[in-house]
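Task card 7
Instruction: Convert sequence to structure tokens.
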Amino acid sequence: MSQRLFVISASSLPDDLRAGCYDMAASLAAFAGEPVEVAVLDPSRIKDLHNVLGKFSGVSFLDVVQPPPVANRRPMGSAPFVWREDGRPDWAAMWTDFCELALYGGPPHRGEDTALLAPEVVPDMSGDDPILTEIRRGIWETTGLFAEPVESGWIAVTCHSRKMAAWLCASIILENVDARFEDERLFLPASPAFDLTNEVKSVVTVLAKTNHYWQAHIEATTGVA
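Output:
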């Protein structure tokens, strides 16, 4: 297969942005099912490359994707927390409405200063912990996906495909919630110390939100599964 996808960045980028380029390339490779080349160029070469591309006869489309307006980067307002009569969260009733994803310019679920990261050390990740049970139940009720604690600080969600896991992972990270993926498994932060109305709510919300978009817009319109 000839190489079709490239990610090009300037060598002057900060380390975190350069690492983000590799993360994006990994997600793109998983989604496309083919390798993605990553090139790091001197800033002057980036300008030269742009000028050259504009002159090539085989280039039919050259565009610049702008970041969303700064105002849209403010975190979304907190939705009301709904409880069942038995005192447990009513996850299915809470997520009947979905705003635009941060991926497409909508407000992220959390602010950058309150981003939810996976805890580095969690002493007990046994599946019968009540908080971990609620995370799993919330994920099941809002997405129909199976989740299980797998290692310290993470819970694994089994997706329908590797492409789905990669797309959800990239979309969730932009919501300022930590995520990673391996094959068809999506990993999200989890800890028995999480609060139901804060961290647990965030994990369930971002997955419900991105999964809804995947099913309604990506899977349904493109046939990608």
